[in-house]
Amino acid sequence: MLRRWYQLMIDNADDLATLITWENGKPLADAKGEVNYAASFFEWFSEEAPRIYGDTIPSSVAGNRVMTLKQPVGVCGLITPWNFPAAMITRKIGPALAAGCTVVAKTPCETPFTANALAELAHRAGIPKGVVNIVTASKNTPEVGEAITTSSDVRKVSFTGSTNVGKLLMRQAASTVKKVSWELGGNAPFIVFDDVEDLDAAVAGAVASKFRSSGQTCVCANRIYVQRGVYDEFVKRFTEKVKNFKLGAGFEEGVTHGPVIHTRAADKVEEHVRDAVSKGARVLAGGQKAAHLGPNFFDLTVLGEMNKDMLVASEETFGPVAGLFPFETEKEVVDLANRAEVGLAGYFFSGNVKRIFRVAESLEVGMVGVNTGLISDVASP
Question: Which of 203, 254, 290, 354 is the most buried (most CB within 10 A)?
């Protein structure tokens, strides 16, 4: 069934991408990329489903064997974000179904239609009624979340979203001692050392990490640290690349980046830019709302000479603002990178093998990308 669902997504990729662009705003090319990424979870877990192995463990008592069996945990409550309205649904539903669990998925109020389309394809794939259940919500989102986290029928909750909401859901899930999986806020450092072998590759990696989905991903670079030896040249090449992008409506020819999700998001981006400038940052590109395009558009922005006292250094922007921080030593930048309260992802570019292993293990994050700006992969935990 998962394999058929995957094929139906591929067969209807253009329609799904159109829905994503309509309700999320990302350019059509990006939306098509998301559909392929989203479908890959169904393909991967359809292949993993027959391989749910247990273990046989030697016992301390002679003649005994310890055996472990993996069994479905039960109904899974899944709460997903708007930034990847297809991929965040399939990433959670795929493994749940592969393990033999039914699901109740609450979709974000900003992007409900993509999930509804996926539910229709599930029906066409032959998945029985009651196995995949989609719940939409708007102003009653907190009540729906509480119903999922406190219901005695739901045995596990998976949530991708903000840290504050994750804390609330964790408290609620504790009432019935559920199994839980959280992917919460990020404030990813992206470090470029002066021993980098290919500066253009570092620039491309930083751009890809920072401006994917207009900076609205939880693993995107939020703080870009560049060692003084290559800082000026990196800033020049990075800024030139960003200035070549085109902001606009997702269906227009040549558009590379779309709006942020709503006006509150645009206001937060503006607040971060104003704060940085007031504390000494230089605007190298963009820096303001693109009001002529609409209230949710913000120019792709590059800020130079950032420092640790600015909001960007401590808060996740979740928008198209790249703050470039100069640094001197490895110890200094590792300390700066680890100052964040959250540690989801991190990135760095270096040509020194010893440094690669040293820094990768020093960064207090769950995922590290070395000499790459994109780490999302269906096979990664």
Answer: 203
